[in-house]
Amino acid sequence: MFPLFGYYSFLFFFLVLCCFPLPCFPARIIPEQITVITTDTRNATWHNFTRFKDAEKGSHISGMSELKKYFQRFGYLSIPDNQNGNFTDVFDTQFESAVMLYQQKLGLPVTGKLDSGTISAIMSPRCGVSDTGPRIHSTKHFAYFYGRPRWERGSPMTLTYAFSPSNMIDYISLSEIRTVFERAFSRWALVIPVNFAEIEDYESANIKIGFFRGDHGDGEPFDGVLGVLAHAFSPENGRFHLDEAETWAVDLEKVKSKVAVDLESVATHEIGHVLGLAHSSVTEAVMYPSLRPRSRKVDLKLDDVEGVQALYGSNPNFKFSSLLESENSSNKGNVLNCRSSKWTFSLAVVSFFLLLMIT
Ligand SMILES: [Zn+2]
Ligand SMILES: [Zn+2]
Q1: Are 194 and 250 within one domain?
Q2: Which of 16, 128, 243, 338 gives 231 a disulfide partner, CB atoms 3.0 to 4.6 angstroms apart?
Q3: Domain-located, residue 343
């Protein structure tokens, strides 16, 4: 009996090993936020926030008031009346609520603690537009600015855009920048009855695009490499500003810098703000507030489309089925992987019981 048992045991383990030759779980489902915090692709100021990792309610860490200012800047926290206009370094109940609101908005596990996933998200390069706050109406996913402002023109409407004659970058040609923006605008124009046309005259354009450095006069100073990448104002303001200090790229394969930022991804996102969309909590959406360096996110997702169409209606030529098809095909890999992992697991279980019966 013993040799027979040994033989089947060997066969069983062989079968199990055959069933799991490769990772069976789709890598994309693992939350990226719990990856190890890296230091070379972070904004210098926000990098300091690593020292608050694992802080929770009751903690007192020197300099935590700086982190509270970050939360204030992006709409999660206001200075309490009883603290003389300053934040303290104490992780109090109010700050815990702000952390929970942030985690909810960024699609993170809501723990109320500064876990590594939360710290990682906080330090990620992002858009300078505030996420939430008392003056922003928010639905489950996509969101609007307070009052749901939109451009008011006849339908179909045409909005004009122009590049600043004096605030541009010189290492990417104007024609390449034009092409990038043309593609970015066309993605939105495909789904709503709005056309975008480039004009020469910056002053009279509806949408004014330029690259600016540091304090540039609108009360929203840029902060150097990474950190805040760009910002745009709600309708019908039209100001569209990119941080000149970033290493902008139109083709990431040709740019080696670790801190390169894809211009088209940021342009597509900021156009969403220009049209009236605020930040979405859907991680895959173009309107999600952060973007990792060297990553590209240019395709509008269902959440982006539903949000903007609720403001402007649908482009008569747009078909939801084509969008759903493209979303399905991008998710197909995951679905197939899940199915195959279920299959291999079932096979292993059946093999196990069969072998038990035989032995
Ligand atoms: Zn934004
Ligand atoms: Zn600005």
Answers
A1: yes
A2: 128
A3: yes
What ligand has the least distance to the C-alpha of 270? 1
Q: Is residue 269 marked as binding?
A: yes
Do 42 and 21 sit in the same domain of this protein?
A: no
Which string of b and e fits 148-178 if b means at least 16 CB within 10 Å? ebbbeeeeebebbbbbeeebebeebeeeebe
Q: Is 270 a catalytic residue?
A: yes
**Ligand approaching nearest to the C-alpha of 219:** 2
Taking the alpha carbons of 220, 221, 227, 231 in that order, is the dihedral positive or negative? positive
Which tokens in the block code for residue 84? 């003389």
Is 218 marked as a binding-site residue? yes
Looking at residue 321, what is its pLDDT? 81
Radius of gyration of the chain (CA): 25
pLDDT (average), residues 216-242: 96
Annotated binding-site residue? 54: no
- Write out the residues surrounding ion ligand 2, Cβ under 5 A: 218, 220, 241
Q: 170 C-alpha vs ligand 1 centroid, how far in Å?
A: 25
CATH number, residue 67: 1.10.101.10
Over residues 162-178, mean pLDDT:
97
How far apart are the CA of 270 and the centre of ligand 2, in A?
12
* Cα 94 to ligand 2 centroid, rounded to whole Å: 30
Distance 219 CA to ligand 2 centre (A): 7
243 is in an annotated binding site: yes
Q: Tell me the per-residue pLDDT of 245-288, one tens digit each, with 9 for 90 and over.
A: 999 999 999 999 999 999 999 999 999 999 999 999 999 999 99
State the distance from the centre of ligand 1 to the C-alpha of 22, rounded, in angstroms: 38
**pTM of the complete model:** 0.79
Residues 90 and 233 in one domain: no
Determine which one of 270, 284, 325, 327 is catalytic.
270
Are residue 299 and residue 338 in the same domain, yes or no?
no
Which tens digit of pLDDT belongs to each residue from 3-52?
A: 444 545 544 444 443 333 333 333 333 333 333 344 455 677 788 899 99
Q: What is the mean pLDDT of residues 313-341?
A: 67
Rounded distance, CA 297 to CA 263, Å?
10
Q: Is 251 annotated as a binding residue?
A: no
Portion of the chain with pLDDT greater than 90, in percent = 68
